[in-house]
Amino acid sequence: MKTLLTICICSVIALTAFGQNPQNPPPPPPAAPPAATAAAPGAPGAPANAAPANPAGQVPQQPGALPAAPGVSPAAPGISPGAPAGVPPAPGSTVGATLTSPAAASASPAASPTAEKASAMSGNFLIDNFRKGGPIMWPILIVSIIGVTVVLERIFWWAGRWFRRDPKRIEKVFTAIEVGDVAEASRLSRDSRDPVLRMMWNGLNHQHASLQGALQVAAGIEIKRAGRFLVVMDTLVTLAPLLGLLGTITGLIRSFSFLGNEELAVQAVTGGIAEALIATACGLGIAIFALIPFNFFTSRVSNLEFELQTAATNLEVMLEATAKAKAEAEMAPTRR
Predict the structure, then answer these.
(1) 185 and which of 176, 195, 286, 321 could share a cystine (Cβ 3.0–4.6 Å)?
(2) Rg, the chain, Cα only
(3) pLDDT digits (tens, 9 = 90+) for 129-154
(4) Which residues, in sequence order, are CB contacts of 141 under 8 Å at separation 6+?
(5) How far apart are CA 309 and CA 316, in angstroms?
(6) pLDDT digits (tens, 9 = 90+) for 7-21
(7) Residue ranges of domains in the chain
(8) Is 170 in contact with 197 (CB distance < 8 Å)?
(9) pLDDT tens, 195-204?
(10) Cα distance between residue 255 and residue 279, in whole Å
(11) In this structure, what are the phi and psi dihedrals at residue 216, rounded to the nearest 5 degrees?
């Protein structure tokens, strides 16, 4: 049980991890700026008709254009209009406005770890809805974990019981009883994991005291094992919708409490309605999830009870018939 509870908690954590909202993908990593390389005139590999570089960042004038007014820099402040082309600017002067420093170009708007964590949490669909559902979501979460644990435990138990069934050995036990070999029937039913064979072994070993009582006690033990945690599932089916209804009421109370404030009325009312709907949906979902396995396991318990009753009745009838035939065989020589 503890192992299954641990597995369920791990599965809930995994579901929250897989519940990432696809509408808010993480930001892509910033691309490195391309390195600007310019070939100097006359350098190997440079075209012959390449224009000379303009380190001052000045904009070449078009043919026929009027010269710039004195004191006005055509490229950037700090560059005199009369500076010859190809002469580097003086120290302290500003190069073209379009040029940036390598440090500024390589810097990327990387978010801090706290901001990244906040964005990841805000983009998680399950966690966002859990928070919007209000405080009633915590008992609903506990109920859901218990429901998943019980369902998994019952699935494993019934799967093991299916593999433990041994109808061929049951037929051999009935055949041995029919021929009057009770010792062989007891040996065949010993150390078996089949519930029917365990009940038959208990009845065969206590038939000298009370065969019917021994069969009833053994059958009751097997039925109790098969019906384990069905009361818990029945409680969850009833409790989950009630918790959802309680969340609906608390959400509506929260919505109506903000109606007097005109500034926060719209946002608060919508938040309260969202809380009510989320709690109701979660409660109904848990009830539906637990109802189907509950009905299935209840039907399996009823089938097992019928099998045990049928086997016990057949065992009683066959033992009575064997004892009667044995008594008649013993009395036959005396009559002669």
Answers:
(1) 176
(2) 43
(3) 888 888 899 999 999 999 999 999 99
(4) 12, 130
(5) 11
(6) 656 655 655 554 444
(7) 137-240+283-323
(8) yes
(9) 999 999 999 8
(10) 14
(11) -65, -40
Burial (CB count <10 Å: 0-12, 13-18, 19+), residue 312: buried
Strand, coil or helix: what is 247? helix
* Tokens 């369920």, located at residue: 8
Q: Which residue is associated with the tokens 């040029």?
A: 99
Q: 212: how many CB neighbours lie within 10 A of its CB?
A: 13
CA 305 and chain centroid, separation: 35
- Looking at the chain, how many residues does it have? 336
CB neighbour burial string for 314-331, b if at least 16 within 10 angstroms, e if fewer: ebeebbeebeeeeeeeee
Type of residue numbered 126: L
Specify which residues 124 forms β-bridges with: 20
Token digits of residue 275: 């809380």
Q: How far apart are CA 25 and CA 105, in angstroms?
A: 25
Picking from 307, 315, 314, 302, the residue whose alpha carbon sits closest to that of residue 201 is 315
147 DSSP 8-state letter = H
The string of pLDDT tens digits covering residues 57-75 is: 444 454 444 444 444 444 4
Question: What DSSP assignment string belongs to 94-124?
Answer: ---TT---HHHHH---PPPHHHHHHHHHHTB
DSSP string for 269-308: HHHHHHHHHHHHHHHHHHHHHHHHHHHHHHHHHHHHHHHH
pTM: 0.60
Residues 6+ apart with CB under 8 A from 34: none
Both tokens of residue 171?
A: 């037929």
Q: Which residues, in sequence order, are CB contacts of 38 under 8 Å at separation 6+?
A: 53
Contacts of 46 (CB under 8 A, 6+ apart): 39, 40
Cα–Cα dist 73/181, whole Å: 120
In the predicted structure, residue 308 carries a pLDDT above the cut 50 = yes
Q: What is the largest CA-CA distance in the chain?
A: 153
